[in-house]
Amino acid sequence: MTTNETANALSVEGTEEEEKVKVLVAGPEHEIYVDTILDTIAEAAKVRGTGIARRTHEYLTKKMMEAKAVIALAKDGTFAGFSYIETWGNKRYVTTSGLIVHPNFRGQGLAKRIKDMTFTLARIRWPHAKIFSLTSGAAVMKMNTELGYKPVTFADLTDDEAFWKGCEGCVNVDVLHRTDRKYCICTGMLFDPEEHLPAKLSEETLSRIKHLEELEEN
């Protein structure tokens, strides 16, 4: 399947205005955008003056390979936004992380579309898992609330050490250490898995996910 065919197959349908930017589950062909994604995330963190866990080129590429990332692209191929998902605690918990929209595409409701897709992707792949979020951004908190997330203490989140190790790259990690991981600058939010799905994945995406899961089992 070509890049254009993949984008068409995995995109979220919307209004004519929304169709100017496609939101789709990322694949191997989207690795060319990884450095731009990392730069956009880093610049956004500087502007906000808040911490963010740093990720590597290899880390985000792996998410794309595993169908655990969502990317937004303009019709001309320009990068517009991104987010990824990860599982923790033997897949009992899922996070949707790294939500970013390029400055040139903000104010168009794109963050909500990306959030809806990552949320749906997580619910489809791990329907019984609890989905949680650590965020310091008011906009993300609002979207989480609309999807059914509720504020919780860090004790309600995964105890998977691999997840908390990811916080070591954040400038505010000293707060996490001083409080013995009870709280930090970010707010913990947890989703009840009984909620409805806000977006629909294409048959091509579902087929790809099934194939990847079969490979993991083998």
Please give a structural write-up:
The radius of gyration is 17 Å and the shape is globular. The chain has a seven-stranded mixed β-sheet with strand order 1-2-3-4-5-7-6, with helices on both faces. It contains eight helices and seven strands. With 218 residues, it is an alpha+beta fold. The protein is 39% helix and 21% strand. Mean pLDDT is 86; it is low at 1-13. Helix 4 (110-125) links the parallel strand 4 (93-101) and strand 5 (130-135). The protein has helices at residues 3-10, 34-48, 57-65, 110-125, 138-147, 161-165, 173-178, 203-217, and strands at 21-25, 69-74, 79-88, 93-101, 130-135, 149-152, 187-191.
Please tell me what the overall shape is.
globular
Distance between the termini: 24 Å
**Can you count the beta strands?**
7
Helical proportion? 25-40%
Question: Helical stretch count?
Answer: 8
Summarize the structure.
By secondary structure, the chain is an alpha+beta fold. 39% of the residues lie in helices and 21% in strands.
Considering the chains and any ligands shown, give keywords for the structure:
218 residues, alpha+beta, seven-stranded mixed beta sheet, 8 helices, 39% helix, disordered N terminus
Spell out the blueprint of helices and strands.
Elements: H1 3-10, E1 21-25, H2 34-48, H3 57-65, E2 69-74, E3 79-88, E4 93-101, H4 110-125, E5 130-135, H5 138-147, E6 149-152, H6 161-165, H7 173-178, E7 187-191, H8 203-217
Parallel strand pairs: 4-5
Antiparallel strand pairs: 1-2, 2-3, 3-4, 5-7, 6-7
